[in-house]
Give the backbone structure.
Amino acid sequence: MGETSKLTAHDVKARMDRGEAVAFIDARNPQAWQEAKTKLPGAIRVPADDVADHLSEIPRDRTVIAYCT
């Protein structure tokens, strides 16, 4: 299993600027996701309560960055 840590938006940008491959996981619950005005294009929707049901959708060849509200 890989490393788990909290990142700031600056940390994520720095990783991307270095060319690190990342995948974003939008872990908001369905209600929060529907009510959101901003959604990150290309993010994979995996509600935090349903991770086990979506493991096959989460890339294993890059850094995975999950976010929620």
Summary: The domain at 9-67 is CATH 3.40.250.10 (Oxidized Rhodanese; domain 1).
